[in-house]
Specification:
This protein has 13 helices and two strands, in the order H-H-H-H-E-E-H-H-H-H-H-H-H-H-H. The protein is mainly alpha-helical. The chain has two domains: about 90 residues, no CATH class; about 210 residues, MetI-like (MetI-like fold), CATH 1.10.3720.10. It has a two-stranded antiparallel sheet with strand order 1-2. A hairpin with a 4-residue loop joins strand 1 and strand 2. Helix 5 packs antiparallel against helix 6 and helix 10 runs antiparallel to helix 12. The chain starts with a helix and ends with a helix.
């Protein structure tokens, strides 16, 4: 297990290096002058030239990349010109709300996805299966931001049950209850889309397990159907679904960009949208790298858990 863990950790290094190159090149090759965008009304040719020199934008791209990457490795994410504060401070301040939203959405995603897929497999070809299949198709097809807008229209505008934006009520006491009320709609909206993928894959995996010989043997021994389905089939199906859960965790984290914008949630996603509009290069690069790194380690964690649970994987990598 230790060898496999070290091996997987080493494999994340070229992945993160590749991500850093892509992030840097995308921001560097976007049309427009970042110095002019940052200065706004103060963008005289002299000021723009001076700012480009301060940002290092007048140097060759390869030199700019290695300077930025070297600073990242030392923990220096640079300074946001638009916010006039260190990028790392802004990211750490925004990280908590984003992880809270993504974690809550992931709980919704896993619960709804596994339960829906399990029921659809057990009730194959019944109205339950057909209804859940329709639900998953709608969930896969509908963009998360559209679902968010529809939720605001229904639960805020029409019914007045839930707040439409923010993490707390302005000038409120910032209590736990207030946080949960504001969290409910964005977390469920984000979790619904991801749960559809898990539901479809859970159904497929469960149907495969229910056709195995060990399930027929368990039934022939007189075990209760609930025990056969949950203790045997579902447990074996879950091992194969763990990497998918890791991928969906990354999808949820990425989807938070749209949901945070729709619900004005004060996280990294909303910050990135604002930073892109102002061409705040270092803030965008730092934010994307932080989200990408979390995504990579979510998948690493899922691989390690699957490796620990499945003896065949241990044997193949041992």
């Amino acid at each position: 297990m230790l060898r496999y863990t070290i091996h997987r950790l080493l494999l994340t290094i070229p992945v993160l290096v590749g991500i850093s190159v892509v992030v840097f090149l995308i921001m560097a090759l976007i049309p427009g002058d970042p110095a002019t965008a940052i200065l706004g009304a103060f963008a005289t040719p002299e000021n723009a030239t001076k700012l480009r020199a301060e940002l290092g934008l007048d140097r060759p791209l390869i030199e700019q990349y290695f300077t930025w990457a070297g600073n990242l490795l030392s923990g220096d994410f640079g300074r946001s010109y638009a916010l006039n504060r260190p990028v790392l401070d802004e990211l750490l301040e925004r990280l908590g709300p984003t992880l809270l939203l993504a974690g809550s959405a992931m709980c919704v995603c896993v619960f709804l996805g596994l339960i829906s897929g399990l029921l659809a497999a057990v009730k194959q070809y019944t109205w339950v299966d057909q209804g859940l299949t329709l639900f998953t198709l709608i969930g896969i097809s509908a963009p998360s931001f559209w679902l968010g807008l529809m939720a605001v229209s229904l639960f805020t505008v029409q019914l007045g049950w839930l707040p439409a934006s923010g993490m707390y009520t302005p000038y409120g006491d910032e209590s736990l209850g207030d946080l949960l009320v504001h969290l409910l709609m964005p977390a469920v909206t984000l979790g619904l889309v991801a749960s559809s993928v898990i539901a479809r894959l859970t159904r497929t995996s469960m149907l495969e397990q229910l056709r195995q010989d060990y399930v027929r043997t368990s039934r022939a021994k007189g075990e209760r159907e609930t025990a056969v389905v949950i203790r045997h089939a579902f447990r074996n199906a879950l091992v194969g679904l763990i990497p998918v859960l890791g991928l969906q965790a990354g999808f949820v984290l990425g989807g938070a960009v749209y949901i945070e914008t729709v619900f004005q949630w004060p996280g990294i996603g909303r910050m990135l949208v604002n930073a892109i509009s102002t061409r705040d290069i270092l803030l965008v690069q730092g934010g994307v790298m932080m989200v990408a790194t979390i995504y990579v380690f979510f998948n690493l964690l899922a691989d390690l858990i699957q490796h620990a649970l499945d003896p065949r994987i241990q044997h193949s990598h041992g």
